[in-house]
Amino acid sequence: MKIMINGINAGLRFSSAHIIPVHTSCGFIHGHSYFVDVEIEGDRFGDYEFVADFKDVKNSVRTICKKLDHRVLIPINNKNMKFKELTAFEKSENDEFDSSDNSKKSETENSSNDSSNDFLDNSDLSVLDFYNKDYVEFTIKNKDYKFPMEDCILLPLKHSSAEDLSQYFANIIFEDLKEKEYKIDSVAVCVNEGIGQGAFFKKE
Ligand SMILES: [Zn+2]
User: Fold this and answer.
1) Strand 152-155 with 72-75, pairing
2) Which of 19, 100, 141, 146 is 20 to 30 A from 57 via CA?
3) How far is the CA of 90 from the centre of ligand 1 (A)?
């Protein structure tokens, strides 16, 4: 059986700013009022024979919406976003970056372009790599951005598109409901960028 929640009617929404790096029109920072539709398929279960209690589903969605609401969405694994190097102090606390310590490199390596050492390889950055920083700084082509960290939400995604966001929501809601021991087969999420366009992802 399937249950459905319509985001615009149920108040599952958030408003955020984002950038789709190097895209001709969406490469400029701009915002959307998003709403999130959810469909859940599974077996009816428990005393009430629910697929999942609507309240549990809405709580899960709202928790994510609340994290993203009134923030700049930063997809830390986007290959066109070059994040500024972490400070030496932060790097020393993070084993992952020991091997790419640029201060050592610049002494031992030659003449390679110094400016390329100012940025991290972000293909496998995690949100924790930014822990305790006050600002997030990055470059997209010739544009430099610096935001207070508290204004941003860092996402372990390649893009902050509706496509990636629907996947992000579906994965988290799926795990939340599994933890509550519902007999869920799939969680499908449509993240709508306003009315009339959205991306739909089904996690099975
Ligand atoms: Zn957009």
Assistant:
1) parallel
2) 19
3) 32
What is the domain partition of the chain in residue ranges?
2-75+156-203, 84-150
Q: What is the pLDDT of residues 117-143, one digit of tens each?
A: 567 777 788 888 888 889 999 999 999
Residue 137 among the catalytic residues: no
| Architecture of the domain defined by 2-75+156-203 | 2-Layer Sandwich (3.30)
3-36 tens-digit pLDDT = 999 999 999 999 999 999 999 999 999 999 999 9
- Annotated active-site residue 26? The verdict is yes
Query: Among 65, 159, 190, 193, which one carries the catalytic annotation?
Result: 193
Q: Has residue 112 got a pLDDT over 80?
A: no
